[in-house]
Input
Amino acid sequence: MIQVIVDNNSLSTEFTNDRTMGELVEYIKSTIDPSSIIVSLTKDDIPLSDNDWKSNLSALTNSKLEIKTGAKSEFIKIRLEAVGNLVGNLIDRIQETSVLFQNGSIVEANKIFSSCLEDLNALISWLHSIISMDSEFYVTELKIFSGQVKDFRYVAGQLQQQQLFQSWWALGETLTTKLIPLLEAMKTLGIEAGKRL
Output
């Protein structure tokens, strides 16, 4: 049977080996203090992989599942502290993409740009989910963020048109003058939201 440790305390479970890791974690969630959330979850000191979640416990008999719990506000604060770096890295890559478009390195620019858009989409979803964890506290931030998402959609439409018409210089300019300022505003929103906790 897998060894389960919650906040440095061993937890005995009645789970059989034909259950999955996901089922075990759901069970553990039901046993922790309702005012706490899981802030860290590792198997043998490594974060769980997608495959781990689906694994039968029989395949993990010599493993150790370690869970740390904490206050929801602390979890949110830690995540929001990362916004500055995440957005800053994305801005750097978008600036690089802008220069490449304007210098005519279209293939390389499109490759980086595609990756940037995927990361931007994930970042928007991630930040929304973090702020939404305390929607009563972050009413104002959610309202502002909703407006920012509409602005991102508008700029995305402009970028798509510029790509369709192969207006590479204009696309690079839009990245610099419209998308990056939106990212800066999103970064500020996340950082300020974290400071409120």
